[in-house]
Design a protein that fits this description.
The structure is a homodimer. By secondary structure, the first copy, chain A, is mostly helical. Chain A has 2 domains: about 50 residues, Homeodomain-like (Arc Repressor Mutant, subunit A); about 130 residues. Chain A has 11 helices and no strands. In chain A, helix 1 packs across helix 6 and helix 9 crosses helix 10. The first copy, chain A, starts with 8 loop residues before the first helix and ends in a 7-residue tail after the last helix. Chains A and B meet through helix 10 and helix 11 of A and helix 10 and helix 11 of B. The structure holds a DNA duplex.
Amino acid sequence: MGRTAKYTDQDILDAALGLVAEDGAHAATVVAIAKRLGAPSGSIYHRFVSRDLILATLWIRTVKRFQQGFLEALLHEESDTAARLAVTHTLQWSAAHRSEAKMLTMYRREDLIALWPDELGGELATLNDEVKRSVIAFTAAHFGQATAETLGRTRFALIEIPYAAVGHIIGSAQPPSWLEHTVATASLAVLARQEPVR
Amino acid sequence: MGRTAKYTDQDILDAALGLVAEDGAHAATVVAIAKRLGAPSGSIYHRFVSRDLILATLWIRTVKRFQQGFLEALLHEESDTAARLAVTHTLQWSAAHRSEAKMLTMYRREDLIALWPDELGGELATLNDEVKRSVIAFTAAHFGQATAETLGRTRFALIEIPYAAVGHIIGSAQPPSWLEHTVATASLAVLARQEPVR
DNA sequence: CGTATAGTAGAGAGATGTCTCTATTATTAG
DNA sequence: CTAATAATAGAGACATCTCTCTACTATACG
């Protein structure tokens, strides 16, 4: 009962995402989001009690969307293959979801959301739990044990190096052909178990 | 003639830098900078005509400070050594200049400076020229020729991978001992001339 | 068909930030 | 010592953004 929604929650999140990706984090003001949808700002506040809640919801949606494939990749039983799949997922997902990839790699949560809303406190607290568990399991399986060093190296190989490559994907019309192979090379070198020649 | 300056240009830049590093880009408001120095905002505007000019000047100062050692490292005639030195410089400089490293790795220019001031337009245009030239020269020397691929791989190895590691330096009291070796391993793997096993 | 309800619409209050303007103060040169 | 000057000091004009409040509108259900 009541009239049907003209602007859905998802529409609002998409508009915010577009603004962040196109014009930067500061551009996603409530007025700008409303204008992008052709709505007045009041309509936005009918759905989300605050700007921070919009961006926090968008953040969670985006992180979860990215994590899904990443977690699946890490499930592969052969650890080198799992690593390759994880790296490939990051690059391909980023190419297929540029705006979202841009948001994730370009901004920290704290720079997008001034004050994390209480109602999403629980969500935030557990958001990375699965990935953390998964990375620890990978490290234990791959290196034999998860120490500060092996964990740090794993994170560097599986997360930070691929993230660093996303800039190349966002920057150009289509990802350079050498990129995927290069990133995999770097990651696997970091994950090498025998002591490399110094 | 006239009274001596109580707050110098450099004091103002340092205050802005501290705010950016500690509380994020949005925290470096003119009022906050003034408060940090114990001055009213009017005194700041006596030195810099706009907030953007403060942050743009800081940006240039920081980039130049970083580039100096990086360019020196790349001068080494043996290219593998040059690469190692460049990587090491990025990590060690970041450890020694955390606030500046944080600013450079955490924010893009566009996110710090809304509208780049005209008076610094020339500076900006040439800011990266030397590094670009230097990276091209390195690529030509190392790979034999600078193509889109060899240039892209060089940038990834010498700039983006080390940048990705800076987070580990900023995040903890002292950089993990394994970091430097790990980053060098990744970079050199990317720079390997023979086709790696796929 | 009419009423309850979910939603849209938009004006405007209040907070925060940039920048301007005028007054005051310290320092140097003659 | 005095005048010129470079700098500090701080009030407030103006812009922008978040969020509130009230009025209006479309739709579903009986």
